[in-house]
Design goal:
This protein is α/β, with parallel strands linked by helices. Strands 1, 2, 7, 8, 9, 10, 16 and 17 form an 8-stranded mixed sheet that branches. It starts with a strand and ends with a helix. A hairpin with a 2-residue loop joins strand 9 and strand 10 (about 145-155). It contains 12 helices and 17 strands. It has 3 domains: about 5-75 and about 85-175 and about 270-335, FAD/NAD(P)-binding domain (3-Layer(bba) Sandwich); about 180-265, Alpha-Beta Plaits (2-Layer Sandwich); about 335-460, no CATH class.
């Protein structure tokens, strides 16, 4: 039976990246992927990454002639519900790739650096020692059930989180499933505009109220019109048809292709590590709060994990949760607090009416340059910002542009965002203090609820008929 330094479950973005980063340091890496190579990451064709993020995470930007690379463009603004008052973040150049091809290239890089990837290998269970610590995994291939030992197992299996689900309920790592309440159902429409003189890039951007966007789509198409929502694909499609297309005037187009996929849309799990174990990527529910993007978001955790774990692997000691706990604390400080403290506020503001949202975009109330421009890169909502939000809301009420019921939702979200920020500032420095903190966190997130709670009951009723 072979022994490895690292066993990774899942060979998509997070899994291949982690495998490559560890293998090129000389560690013995095994990756298990349930799909055959030709079926890996086929949910979407095109995905986008900024050149800044790619440089940060040592991702290959590829030459323009490479078949996996499709295009390059500048960043896009955030638009109001009726397509006005754009708020721009930092316009880093962004590159579009064919997702399957790019991930297979990542896998090849990992293999060149010494990682072993077994395709058609379905994870079955974790292996534990007599102390209940993770020491490897069972998996099944066409040759039957097999076992592999490793000093650490990394779950990069995506939403199913197949390895994380096999941890005992007493684990400090969450073992609850990501349910339909906590998933963004994403529909992508690959389109062509009828007006051939039109510049499709002038229409690019993100529409927060619908969780919809327009972005480049590659050869043969003018753009991707995408939309994501809680509840179901049917709900997302109805929002696109009856709300987005009604309120945001678009030139006529034809739909050439439709893709559907899923991404987590909830707070990240509380702890990513346990004895001999770590969860990374969608299995850890790490996604941007505004749009649900997870590819590069998850690599923030991955980079921290590489730094900490590579040092620990050079010793002969077992990789306990105590020794790896700094992965949790560093992530919460670097990204976790910013992402998760923004979620309650977003839940409150996206429930505003389209007319209210339009007013708030125009007057920088919540939908400000600072908040929307920095929402995906990390920012601090300070006392001055909060007072500005409150003052803008009061003006909106006095002029009849914002309802009192809307104010209550926004203030509730703002208050909950502040609570999350304070809670994450007090993230436990050791596993011993974790149970008390977790109890407080569970109570707070139960109060906050889920993005699905903001779904329109009328649309749910309509699609249920």
């Amino acid at each position: 039976m072979e022994k490895y330094d690292i066993l990774i479950v899942g060979a998509s973005t997070s899994g291949c990246w982690f495998a490559n980063e560890m293998a090129k340091q000389g560690f013995k890496v095994l990756v298990l992927e349930k799909q055959k190579p030709e079926f890996v990451s086929r949910d979407y064709d095109i995905f986008h990454m900024s050149t800044e993020e790619m440089a940060q995470f040592n991702l290959d930007q590829l030459d323009e002639s490479h078949p996996a690379r499709e295009f390059r463009f500048e960043g896009s603004p955030m638009w109001s519900p009726y397509g006005n008052y754009p708020k721009r973040g930092e316009d880093f150049p962004t590159v579009g790739f064919h997702k399957h091809d790019y991930i297979m290239l990542m896998a090849e890089r990992a293999k060149q650096n010494g990682a072993k990837i077994i395709y058609g290998a379905s994870f079955k269970d974790l292996l534990f020692d007599e102390k209940g610590r993770v020491i490897g995994a069972k998996y099944v291939t066409e040759f039957g059930e097999q076992e592999a030992f490793a000093r650490i197992v990394a779950d990069c299996s995506g939403i199913p989180a197949v390895a994380r689900m096999k941890l005992p309920s007493t684990s400090v790592v969450n073992t609850d499933k990501t349910t339909e309440r906590d998933i963004l159902f994403v529909v992508l429409y690959y389109i062509k505009y009828l007006d051939k003189q039109l510049d499709p890039r002038s229409l690019d951007g993100f529409f927060l109220h619908y969780k919809s966007w327009s972005a480049p789509a590659g050869k043969g198409y003018d753009a991707i019109l995408g939309i994501g929502s809680g509840h179901s694909f049917a709900y997302a499609e109805e929002v696109f048809k009856s709300q987005f297309m009604k309120n945001v005037k678009r030139p006529e187009f034809t739909v050439e292709k439709i893709e559907r996929g899923l991404t987590p849309y909830k707070r990240s799990i509380y702890s990513f590590v346990d004895d001999g174990f770590i969860a990374i990527g969608d299995s850890a529910c790490i996604t941007k709060p505004t749009c649900g993007e997870g590819c590069t978001s998850s690599l923030v955790l991955g980079q921290i994990a590489v730094d900490v774990i590579s040092k620990l692997l050079k010793s002969d000691d077992f990789l306990t949760k105590e020794k790896m706990w700094s992965i949790n604390t560093l992530y919460m400080k670097k990204q976790g607090k910013d992402f998760d403290s923004l979620r309650p506020l977003l839940y409150g503001v996206i429930a505003t009416s389209f007319d209210e949202g339009e007013y708030m975009f125009k007057h920088d109330v919540v939908f400000s340059q600072k908040i929307l421009g920095g929402a995906n890169s990390g920012f601090v909502l300070n006392g001055k910002d909060i007072m500005g939000i409150v003052g803008g809301i009061i003006k909106g009420i006095l002029c009849g542009k914002i309802k009192v019921s809307t104010v209550k939702r926004i203030l509730k979200g703002l208050n909950q965002s502040t609570k999350v920020g304070k809670l994450y500032d007090d993230y436990p420095k050791t596993p011993a203090d974790f149970p008390v903190w977790k109890t407080k966190a569970d109570a707070l997130w139960k109060e906050i609820g889920s993005a699905i709670d903001t779904c329109d009951p009328a649309i749910i009723k309509k699609i249920s008929k």
